[in-house]
Amino acid sequence: MDKGTVIRSIVLFIALANQFLVSFGLYEIPGTAEEQTAFLSTLFTIIMAIIAWFKNNYVTAKGKKQKELLVTHNLAKQK
């Protein structure tokens, strides 16, 4: 299994365990509904911003190689 599959599997397991606990009333997230909504909204925004930043910028070694390949084939603008 690759690293991404392992991470997605762990996150899925945690989400399923959380859903099970909530459905039986064994676990409750503290705070009001408004606080929970604000927290989840902020968390979603941060995660999506990080994903968009990595997807749209060549910041990793692999990304830099991809950019070089795109430039050599005239598929991206060279700065």
Describe it for me?
The chain is mostly helical. 72% of the residues lie in helices and 0% in strands. The chain has 2 domains: 1-30; 32-79, no CATH class. The protein has helices at 3-23, 33-56, 61-72. The two termini are 38 Å apart. The model has no long low-confidence stretch (mean pLDDT 80).
Brief characterization of the structure:
The protein has about 80 residues and is mainly alpha-helical.
Keyphrases for this structure?
79 residues; mainly alpha; 3 helices
Element-by-element helix/strand order: HHH
Protein structure class? mainly alpha
Number of domains: 2
Shape: elongated
State the major sheet: none
Provide the gyration radius in Å.
20 Å
Mean pLDDT across every amino acid position: 80
Low-confidence stretches: none
Topology:
Layout (H helix, E strand, L loop, with lengths): L2 H21 L9 H24 L4 H12 L7
